[in-house]
Amino acid sequence: MTTSYSSTDKSAPMPSAPMKYLEDGRVDWGTMWDTFCAPAWDGGPPHRGTMLYAAVPADSTSAQYQAVVAELIRGITAVSGLPAAPAEPGWIAVACASPAMAQWLGESIVLENVAARWDAATLLLPAGPHYTLGGEIKNVITVIAKSHHYWIEHLPTDVKRTLAVQNWLAQMGERVQGWLRPHATRS
Q1: Can you say how many angstroms the Cα of residue 33 is from the centroid of all Cα atoms in its chain?
Q2: Which run of H or of E encompasses 126?
Q3: C-alpha span between 149 and 33 (Å, rounded)
Q4: Cα(93)–Cα(20) distance, rounded to whole angstroms?
Q5: What does pTM read for this prediction?
Q6: DSSP result, 86-116
Q7: Rounded to whole angstroms, how far apart are CA atoms 95 and 15?
Q8: Dist CA 61 CA 101 (whole Å)
């Protein structure tokens, strides 16, 4: 018996999209999804049932880890158009248009049960040497595709502006607190 996620538990992980391939045998990340279900922040099912964490590899120069990182970068760029590059071991850095975008994407991705961090306009997504193409690699690429799609296509401009102002105010608040902290005195 097959059960659709929409007919039962809305908090259950979303079903997986079938893999599509290019003529050369590589995954065609850019055309894998025709539609997206509602994001977890908007009541949709999370992408994964459990949290996917970054895995710091014992050897970040290993061929296996390098292959995972290369595929993640290729997929992230294909689905979002955002430049991606290796970051510290266990993470992929994605350059976003603004700090507000990086934060919103990161918060949305965490709700999909994939670890994410952000620093200024850089979004960090997990990587690990044990990640498989149809498993963790696909999970990371799916959540950036889904979240980026909603940021670009569905999030109203006034919400994006509000997020940018909130981000700017938080940065200014941190600056002011830094100015007000007592400076260490030299003895």
Answers
A1: 16
A2: strand 122-126
A3: 11
A4: 25
A5: 0.76
A6: E-STTEEEEE-SSHHHHHHHHHHHHHTTB--
A7: 28
A8: 31
Find, among 41, 168, 151, 154, the residue nearest to 99 by Cα: 168
What's the token pair of residue 75? 């997929």
- Answer for the pair 73, 85: CB distance below 8 angstroms, yes or no: yes
| CA–CA distance, 148 with 28 (Å, rounded to integer) | 17
pLDDT tens, position by position, 144-186: 999 998 888 866 677 667 666 776 777 777 777 788 777 655 4
| Domain assignments of the chain as residue spans, ordered by start | 52-174
Q: Which of the residue ranges 6-15, 112-121, 141-150, 168-177 would you say has the lowest mean pLDDT? A: 6-15
CA distances from 143 to 23, 33, 38, 87, 137 (A): 25, 11, 12, 19, 10
Fold held by 52-174: Aspartate Aminotransferase, domain 1 (3.90.1150)
Long-range CB pairs of 12-16 (<8 Å, 24+ gap) are 12/45, 12/49, 13/45, 13/46, 13/47, 13/48, 13/49, 13/113, 14/44, 14/45, 14/46, 14/47, 16/138
Q: How far apart are the first and last CA of the chain?
A: 76
Task: Name the DSSP class of 27.
Answer: B
Residue 107 is encoded by which pair of tokens? 């918060």
Encode pLDDT of 28-48 as tens digits. Answer: 888 776 666 666 666 777 889
